Each structure stands twice: as structure tokens, then as C-alpha cells.
Amino acid sequence: MQLKTALLGSAILAALALVAGRTGAGIDTAPAGRAADIAATAAGSAASANAPQSVAAHHNTPLAALFAGTGAHPGSDLVASSAGEAEADASPAAARARGLLQGAAGEQVHRVAADAFAARDVMVDRDGTEHVRMERSYQGLPVVGGDFVVHSQNGELKSISQGDNMRTTARPELQPKIGLEQAKIEAGANFDGQVRKIDNAGLVVFARGVEPTLAYQLELHGDRRNDPLPGHITYFVDAGNGKLLQADDRVQTAASNGTGKTLLIGNVGIVTDSTSSGFRLVDPSRGNGSTYDAQGSMSYSTGFPGAPLFTDADNTWGNNATSDRATVAADAYYGVAATWDYYKNVHGRNGIFNDGNGVRSFVHVGNAYDNAFWYGSQKLMAYGDGSSFKPLVALDVAGHEMTHGVTEATARLGYYNIKDTGGLNEGISDIFGTLVEFSANNPNDPGDYLMGEKLVKNNPNGTSALRILFKQDADGRSKVCYPSGGFTASQTGQGGTYDPHFTSGVLNRVFYLASEGVVVPSGFSYTKAQLVCNNDTTIAGIGRNKVGAIMYRALTRYFVSSTTYPQARTWTLQAATDLYGANSAEYNALARVWTAVNVN
After folding, report:
1. 3-state secondary structure string, 340-394?
2. Which is the catalytic residue, given 401, 426, 437, 586?
């Protein structure tokens, strides 16, 4: 690949030194079941369509993984990142950040003359924005809690990310008033077990939740009481009065490979959290996402906070039947992991909110509740046990629900009473729920263009589903052809003629036609003419991976909270231009598909 340096800003060119020499909202079976809290109406903003495309090294995620199967222009939002603290601190980006800290940036972090800063991590975006994570010291002593991130572009400060720890220019005197032995006694007295040794790691300025305070940092090693885990705890002891400021347990519970005996897809491997007393449905490898038993509660304020986390002694979860409450928990947990992996491996997104944090899932919600939903303000997913349907913990349903969170974190597409937007919101979730199912490649739930087919009772041919993406109007109420003038806002309320679960059929059909072309899936007897709105039956698909890349880019760069279907056409075509070029085969195919659903 040839590096197109003409398209790169000076900040990116400098950042390439970092890598030089290295290689390397709800599924809703019925609208009445939708929780009103799901809708997010705050306005988002569209990203610039003119960001330069470049071929550059991405240290953390291989480009091949991010763009596998899409054929998009090589590149990633992240063009360079440091491989270690030494490399970060020696980088041009770190030098620029330190220069900024001599001015207004220094005021923001409450810099004093004796403060010094060392870069611990550097990340550079494709548009040249540099993110430099700094550690602080004062007169040579580490400042615990004094870290922050400098964000800049082209040498100009954009912002500072920092906690509440160092909102002061006050600094402590650096002469201890108690001796080291007294500090060790305090640390040892706080350890529950037999102390073997206490090492002195030196004096520090401690600033976590307190005014900057001179402290001893002590590393205690010992044998815990009634706990086989190794005992290693870091104690911070006030060097002025001997008070314990904080204890950090250095031995944390580890990930473990378990087995989920699910209801819908058989036995699957899952990653759980190993503790001294057994295992928990907490995934340390995916942001500590966790799964709880709602025990029939529908109360977000009283029931969910007290819901027990699923635990187990042998790391085998469920029995493939509803007689074990952990069975459906394993389904939901597996779906969350598959969704995390899809967004991470395909789009480079680190969790729903791109912050590395997992979300909470609650199963056994309500009494025979025939629904599942995303509750945005609480960042949780909930799954009912079903009545007319099986428990709503299908793989594509998990992908659907978590995608509502991605939408909320990015475009914040509105839901009810905002013309076309709710349908786009629902359609985006159906699309990415489907892509998650294909990505998981589970032989017991192969990818298809049906949403929630695993939940339908008595479905031997697998052709019944909550929604059929290529012909959603088969349910007798959904819309698959866009009407002149669009969907009337006053009729897009919950249960209305244009409820979002009905108007999503337009976008779902776009996704199918763009992916597969006008092809009637096996097991269905529709004619080709029934899959389009304009008799254009010779459309050829470009592949679902390419369509997924286009839809993700449009959602995260261009869509805003009030996006209409005509705007969605414009902005997905812009995304296709960004990825494949103006008037490319991909662009032309997508334009033809939009016309096939009457969006022009």
C-alpha cells in the first residue's frame, strides 16, 4: 500500500513516528410494550464529510479486521498510537502537549511551577487530533490522581479531560511528620490476614478525593484470611498524621472460560468472572458487562437495583431449559458478547458508548412479559420471559437492543412523534442486530434477514419472525414503500399508524436489497416484484458487509436526531462516497435501492 502523504496533515505525519519501524430501545413484539423512556431526542450533529482518507498504521486494531469484507478505502479513525510509555513520552505529540501546558492548558489543570508531566499514552485521529494522556509529578514525586488528557489539533488546544482530583494549585509540604515504620504499622493493621512483608514504594502526593497530601505508598504482601487469592495491596498512608487514605487491591478477579447451556442456541462458550467463591456473569474481557435476575420486577427504581447478579459454582450456566433460571441468562449474556465483538472487530468501537464499559442486562423481567427493551437513561437492557413468544433473549434481539445504545451515543435519533426518525431508529437496530447474528456465525442460529425468528413458537420452517426485513408488510401493518410527503409526525406515536416499528420496514428493505439484490430468499414464495416498490427487479446487491460499513458511517458521522428518510438517502450516499468513491458501483447500487423504496 502506498502512503498518500499529500492528504495527511502535519500532525498526522508527526504522529506516524509513533509507529515507524513497527509492523504490525426495544425489539417490541407489539408497540404497546415499548417503554417510553427509550426515546432520545437531544440533537446530535453531523460530522464533516471532508475528512482526508489515508493509509496509516493502527497499532491496536489491524486494518484488515476493521475493514474485512467491506472493500472500503483503507484507513481508520485512529491512524497512530503509542506502544508504550517510553514511546509516548518521546513522541512529537507529547512535546506539543507539554508546550500547551505552559499556557492556557496549564491553567486548566492547575499547573504550578514545580509540576512536571510525562506522557503515558498517545492516540492520533485521522483528522490530526492528538490525545495525549499525561501523568503528573510534583518536585519529582508522583501525583496519584493528577493524570489528565490533552486534546489538540494542529498545535491548538481543543480541550482537557480530567477528573475532580486536582482542581487546586495547593501542594503539600514534602517533609513527613511520621516515620516509615509507623506508616507500615497502619497498613499492616488494615490487612485481613497474615502479613509477610511490606515494601516502601516511596513518598507520593496523593490527590484522589482529597486535597493533595504527602503520603507513603506501601506495597503489602501476605496471606488473606479465608481466601486463596494472593494478598497484594497498595496502601497510601498520610505522611502527616498516619491516617489510611486508600487501599488498592492489586489482585483482581480474573476472566474464566465457562459454558452457557442456552435455551435457543445450545451450548456455547462464554467468558465469566472467577472469584474466590465461584463464578459470576460478569465479562472482564468486554467492559465488565453483567447479567442479573430481575425476578419478575418491572421497576427500574426499586426492583432492578436489588436484582441479584447471576453466580455459579462450576461455571456451567443453565440446563438448556427454562427450569433453570440461568438458562436464559446465558442466552442474553452470549448475545451481549457477540454484539460487543461485532462492533469492536468490524467498526473498531470499544463498547456501546465507545468508552470500554459494558452494560447491564436483566432477564426474567415482568410476568410473562412479551418484550425486550433498551432503557437509555439507565444504560441497561431488559428481557421478558414471554408468553405468546419464548423468552426474548435471541441473539439478534441482543444485537438490536445494544444498537439502540449505539444510536443514543451517536446520532440520538428521535423516536415517537418526529416524522420518519423513529422508523430509522428501529431499522438501524434491526440492521445491526442482523449483522451481529451473521457475525456470530453460530450453526444453531445461522444468519438470516429475519428478526427474532428463534422466539416464535411452533416455527418448524423458521420462516415466521417478529419482523421480516425484506417484506416487513407481511405483518399486515408495516410500511415498506415510502409515501409521498413522508410519514406524518402526528401519527408516529406509540401504536399509531406510523409507529416506528411499522415505518422501519422502509430502511430494512433498503438494507436487504442493497445487500442481496432482488432475490427471494429460500423458503418464501414471494415474487421479485413484491420485493420492490417500482418494478425494478434487476438490482444486484453489493454484500451486507459493505452495506453495514455504509450504515455505520452514516449513523456515526451524518445522522442527527431528526433525520428523515430523504436525508438518510443523502447521507448514506455520502457515506458510500467516503468509503468507495463518488459514482462507484456501491454508490450507484445504493442509490438505485433507495429509489426502489420510493425515497428520492
Report:
1. HHHHHHHHCCCCCCCCCCCCEEEEEECCCCCCEEEEHHHCEEEEECCCCECCCCC
2. 401
Determine whether 441 is exposed, middle or buried from the number of CB atoms within 10 Å of its CB (0-12, 13-18, 19+). exposed
Catalytic one of 58, 347, 364, 501: 501
Each residue's pLDDT expressed in tens, for the chain with a length of 600 residues: 222 222 234 444 444 444 333 323 445 444 333 222 212 222 222 233 233 222 223 333 333 333 445 555 443 355 676 766 888 899 999 999 999 999 989 999 999 999 999 998 786 777 788 878 788 999 999 999 888 888 899 999 988 877 666 889 999 999 999 999 999 999 999 998 999 999 999 999 998 778 999 999 999 988 877 654 457 888 999 999 999 998 876 543 344 567 899 999 999 999 999 988 899 999 999 999 999 999 999 877 778 899 999 999 999 999 999 999 999 999 999 999 999 999 999 988 889 988 889 999 999 999 998 888 888 767 888 899 999 999 999 999 999 989 999 998 888 787 876 789 889 999 999 999 999 999 999 999 999 999 999 999 999 888 999 999 999 999 999 999 999 989 998 898 778 899 999 999 999 999 999 999 999 999 999 999 999 999 999 999 999 999 999 999 888 878 877 788 998 999 899 889 888 989 999 999 999 999 999 999
- 268: helix, strand or coil: strand
Cell of 109: 489543570
Rounded to 10 degrees, what is the CA torsion of 199, 200, 201, 204?
150
Tell me whether residue 501 is one of the annotated catalytic residues.
yes
For 93, list phi and psi in degrees, rounded to 5.
-65, -40
Cβ atoms of 536 and 596 within 8 Å: the answer is: yes
Instruction: Round to whole Å and give the CA distance between 165 and 159.
Output: 17
In whole angstroms, give the CA distance from residue 274 to residue 1: 44
- For 543, other C-beta atoms within 10 Å of its C-beta total 17
Q: How far is CA 245 from the centre of its chain?
A: 34
**Do the strands 360-365 and 380-384 form a parallel or antiparallel pair, or are they unpaired?**
parallel
Helix (H, G, I), strand (E, B) or coil at 438: helix
What would the grid cell of residue 129 be? 487530533
Fill in the amino acid letter for 349.
R
Distance CA 160, CA 150 (A): 5
Number of residues that make up the chain: 600
Q: Is 186 a catalytic residue?
A: no
DSSP 47: P
Determine if the pTM surpasses 0.70: no
**Per the structure block, which three cell numbers stand in for 82?**
503509542
